[in-house]
Amino acid sequence: MTLITKAEDEPMSACNTGADLLVQSILREGTDVVFGYPGGAVLPLYDALYRQKVRHILTRHEQGAIHAAEGYARISGKPGIVIATSGPGATNLVTGLMDAYTDSLPVVVFTGQVTRAVINTDAFQEADVIGITASATKHNFQVRDVQDLPQMVHEAFYIAATGRPGPVLVDLPKDICKAQPDPQAEEPAIHLRGYHIPGEVSEAQIRNLAGAIEKSVRPVLLAGAGVQHAMASERLRAFAQSQQIPVVSTLLGLGSFPASHPLFLGMGGMHGTYTANMAISECDLLINVGSRFDDRLTGNLTRFAPGAKIAHIDIDPSEIGKNVPVDYPVVGDANAALGKLEKAMIPCKDRRDWLARLSAYTRKHPQHYDDTAGDETIPPQLLIERICHYAGPDAIVTTDVGQHQMWAAQYYRFERPNHLASSGGLGTMGFGFPAAIGAQVAEPGKQVIAIVGDGGFQMTLEELAVVRELNLPVKIIILNNHALGMVRQWQEAFYGQRYSHSRSSFQPDFVRLAESYGIDGRRIGKKADIDPALDAAMQTPGPVLIDCHVRQMANVYPMVPPGKGLQEMTGV
Amino acid sequence: MKRNIIAIVTTNSGVLGRIGNLLSRAQLDVDGLTMQKLPGKGMSDISMLIDTDDAHKVDHFIKQMDRFVDVISVADMT
Q1: H/E element holding A398?
Q2: Is A124 known to be catalytic?
Q3: Do A148 and A250 belong together in one domain?
Q4: Which structural domains are found in chain B, ordered by start?
Q5: Rg (Cα) of chain A, in Å, rounded?
Q6: Residue A348's pLDDT band (boundaries 50, 70, 90)?
Q7: What is the CATH classification number for the domain harbouring A521?
Q8: Where residue A357 sits, what CATH number does that domain have?
Q9: For residues A17 and A38, what is the distance between their CA atoms, to the nearest angstrom?
Q10: Which domain-ending residue is among A142, A161, A178?
Q11: Is A563 touching B (CB cutoff 8 A)?
Q12: Which of A337, A364, A391 is the last residue before a domain boundary?
């Protein structure tokens, strides 16, 4: 039997509802795709999407939708858009919102809400989304009048994408979406009295910093995610080169400076290179460009860059001086600041002694791993190197969180900006695979590789349906150690080898799982399997999953143990 | 030490919630809090009395508050 009734309770003018106005407002922002999941409170909105032929990607869980939107935003630089229903639909987004907030990703989220008349009555699928997400968003608001929709949508996109980017949530009571708005003649404008974006970079701050660089004998640049958000990679490269200043990257800064450049020292921090951490420890001037001095980067703050003056370029004034006292603050966009700095500088000082000292560290303590376990097993670090070899410098990589993420950061050579999407600040397992979907949607012509662990992949693997349905050629590479590797590593090192709930006694057959979704699957477990499997995967036009069984007891080294300074690395 | 923080905010629902969340996250003890609508401008002023000897924590709290879209200005008036 076919059920045909009028749309819910009201006769409705087909193209003139609040939901239509909302969709038109979203399209006005230049949107080409939205990620979402329908439900009762957003039925009017989905009806408008149906009428207006918006490209909508149906994920299989709201968490998948928001991580996909994050991946899209990270790679394209444009806001990722998410739609979810009220109550559980909205609460399923909270992890992704916090993830986007922590890593400064522009995401605009539209959540359904129960009708205004029953808000705060514990109505079906009601949740206080504004209250719940207040701490996980750059801004959020609930629409109270249908006439406000164009303005609010415009402001939501503006807030998400300007200044320090971040997620913005717009909560939509169902009756607002069903209401019939009056025609609006005026284009929406921005009226945000309390929203300040730093303006011109201060000349005085730049002069002070330029003077400090001129005096410095052992300077180091620290490149954070802000370099990529500001599209300042080219400026950073030119500046580092002209001043002969070596560059250390944060995790989220990887790709902002070419890995193959002679001035690049690698990632710093807990699992950074020895040279990068010694450069920070022995420099006389640390110039942080767009990073927030995260604790995984600094180690013990009392031993961080002990003899150095600290310069910090950041668009968010609240980051300056938050964790590390700053001698030379520069508030502003990294691209603008580096441009002004370049102009303010005199020709380069001779820094050959400093660079030679750092080169000697690299020769003495190069990044290395244990490759002595024989050919019947796969060292995970080797696997990453081979993925990098087969994928090439233009491939986009996404990761989850844990050992595989750190090995990817250490052994994958990121040459270009905006080619890595990883959950840095929040450390969200389950991020990598849906983020790869968003990245592939943003860059349909590029090779996208999701490097994930067996633990994290099981948190969002339902999105296999999406890559099959859209035939997205994402290559999913599981570093399968039958364990929550980083948890197990810490239990080995700091909890007396008591492996409490970190090793899997059961896991699914990932190959057959992929095949059940109509995706090519392959399992490898020996060194000799690596190259043929990767070669075949890269030649396959559609999605492929490779279940790589790697050494369970492999550990991520070198490491700065918790509570120690960067100069106290183990496993170098 | 008692710190007197004054803010001018846009009169939107949610702004007080955000500030309350931040106070809680910053682990700042609030001795007093008032919010009052300013006549005819869509703005309100908020006055907070905070008891702490940690100047860095208060400075950071003020910077974080200033990030809020609905906070027009905020200052330590102690």
Answers
A1: strand A396-399
A2: yes
A3: no
A4: 2-76 (3.30.70.260)
A5: 25
A6: confident
A7: 3.40.50.970
A8: 3.40.50.1220
A9: 18
A10: A178
A11: no
A12: A364
In a domain, A11, yes or no: no
Considering only CB atoms, which chain A residues are within 8 Å of B24? none
Has residue A5 got a pLDDT over 80?
A: no
Q: Which of A174, A178, A309, A340 is catalytic?
A: A174
Query: How far is residue B78's CA from residue B74's CA, in Å, rounded to a whole number?
Result: 12
Best mutation target, B25, B54, B67, B68, to test chain A (most A CBs within 10 A): B67
My answer on whether A214 and A360 are in the same domain is: yes
Distance CA A316, CA A101 (A): 13
- Distance in angstroms (rounded) separating the CA atoms of residues A256 and A247: 10
Are A34 and A119 found together in one domain?
yes
Instruction: Answer whether B14 sits within 8 Å of A130, measured CB to CB.
Output: yes
β-pairing verdict for A219-223 and A285-289: parallel
Asked whether residue A428 is domain-assigned, the answer is: yes
Rounded Cα–Cα distance for residues A462 and A424 (Å): 23
Name all contacts of A29-33 with Cβ < 8 Å and 24+ positions apart.
Answer: A29/A79, A29/A153, A29/A154, A29/A157, A30/A78, A31/A79, A31/A81, A33/A57, A33/A72, A33/A81, A33/A441
Same domain, A64 and A137: yes
A327, A357: one domain: yes
User: Given this model, what pLDDT does residue A8 score?
Assistant: 57
Contacts 24+ apart (CB under 8 A), A493-498: A493/A555, A493/A561, A494/A561, A494/A562
Same domain, residue pair A342 and A398: no
How crowded is residue A2: how many other Cβ atoms within 10 Å of its Cβ?
3
Our answer to whether residue A322 is catalytic in this structure is no
Instruction: State the residue range of the domain holding A86.
Output: 18-178
Contact B19, B74 (CB under 8 A): no
Q: What is the 8-class DSSP label of residue A147?
A: G
SS3 A281: helix
Q: How many CA atoms lie within 13 A of A26 on its CB side?
A: 29
pLDDT digits 0-9 by tens, A56-68: 999 999 999 999 9
In this prediction, residue A7 has a pLDDT band, given cuts at 50, 70 and 90, of low
Distance between CA atoms of residues A332 and A329, nearest Å: 10
What distance in Å separates residue B77's CA from the closest CA in chain A?
19
CA distances from A75 to A228, A365, A446, B22 (A): 10, 33, 11, 31
- Please tell me the distance from the alpha carbon of residue A68 to that of residue A341, in angstroms, as a whole number: 36
Could you tell me if residue A196 is inside a domain? Answer: no
A479 with A398, same domain: the answer is: yes
Measured between beta carbons, the chain B residues lying within 8 angstroms of A130 are 13-14, 17
% of chain B surpassing 70 pLDDT:
100
Chain A: residue whose CA lies nearest to B24: A135
Confidence tier at A500 by pLDDT (50, 70, 90): very high
pLDDT-based confidence at A15, cuts 50/70/90? low
Say what the pLDDT of residue A12 is: 46
- Residue A486 annotated in active site: yes
**Does the residue A330 lie in any domain?**
yes
Q: List phi, psi (to 5°) of A456.
A: -65, -40
Residues A254 and A209 both lie in one domain:
yes
d(CA A80, CA A74): 9
Residue A480 near residue A503 (C-beta atoms within 8 A) = no
Give residue-wise pLDDT tens across range A165-224.
999 999 999 999 999 999 876 789 999 999 999 989 999 999 999 999 999 999 999 999
